[in-house]
Amino acid sequence: MDTIKNVIILTDSFPFGHSEPFLESEIISWKDYPSLAVTLLPILNASGNKRPIPENWSVDSQLVSKLKWYEKTILFTFPIVFLNPFFWKELAKYPKIIFKPKKIRRLIAVSTFSYVISKYLLKNYMKILAAPGTLIYSYWFYYSAYGAALLKRKGYPFKLISRAHRMDIYQNRKETHYYIPFRKFPVWNYINQIYPVSKEGRDYLMSNQSIPNHKLEVSYLGVAEQTHITAFSEIKTINLLSCSNLAPVKRINLLIDNISIFGAKYKTIEIKWTHIGDGPLKETLTKHAKEKLKSNNIDHIFLGNIDNTKVLDYYQQNTIDCFVTTSASEGLPVSIMEALSFGVPVLSTNVGGISEAVNDKVGYLLDYDFTYEDFEKGILYILKFKDKAKRKQIADWGNTFFGAITNYKNFIENALIPEYI
Asked: Could you give the residue range(s) of every CATH 3.40.50.2000 domain in the chain?
């Protein structure tokens, strides 16, 4: 069997911009395979800062402009979806979708994007797609994986794999109108292996989308192992850190509300809350925080988007008592893995695969619809981790289960096994 020689990695925007920061850690492990010819192919964004990649890698940023053109002209170009056989397969399995405007719009958009991606791959990478020894690796189980799957359907011999995180797994979410296109029929037939980032995600794909177990292999993301353990603050101080996109699903408004109530009740405790990340709700949430966090004992700051290296610097240069997230939906966040690797306890809603990383030895889990009383109980429990030995145990846990070197090496070696359907 031929070995893998060429790799195409389909991303949303990496190496451009700030999104997909977890790929930065994974790229380090890919450097151990210098004989591979690797091309990064972002599909949604190719602007902003360009993050470091191996010198022998190439970046193809041309597909982004093509997809943006189709997005802008969708009213005139939507008949292209009729050329996508997956569109018809989905429609046959879910005919009622034509009476559901939001869902049919999503299906049309995904059908258009995946078809254009398949045509772009065929036009620009025909030679390596037709030859054995090529791996296409989609970072998301969505547009890009579907586009490559269209070519697999035609019999091209490359190996196709995809990771699966959160938005590309869970259909039980209001923000996606409880629907992910191309899951009503077995699109997974055209994908060699799907790698959900949590056991909970794997189980959901099996139960909700009938993907067989042999097609799924859990592959945790990873973060750099840390030797530094973040210091905790003085007894009468609580320093909270959150790190996420400022989007509705993250429910930062709930975090603000609960910090406000806690601060009003515990006036002798100095509270500082720092948030890293930006997003569509930035203006709304900064205004909300300014209105709610008025107590003299509460301080807060929004740092915006910062490079991952600066996030790690923050853990080394500041005292942090708790990493906190009140998200409504997650996969298994790298931000939590980073906190654990520095010995920082985590207070989180029990959603997605978070319970695979957080237990009562390293933090505290809140119910999805937690009350203030639950939040208060969680904060008071977290204060028990102001102890060097407990911090060391947290760091050991994080580095053992979510160490980038081990996790990514295992993933890459598995991905490079030349198994073809």
From this structure: 6-222+405-415, 237-401
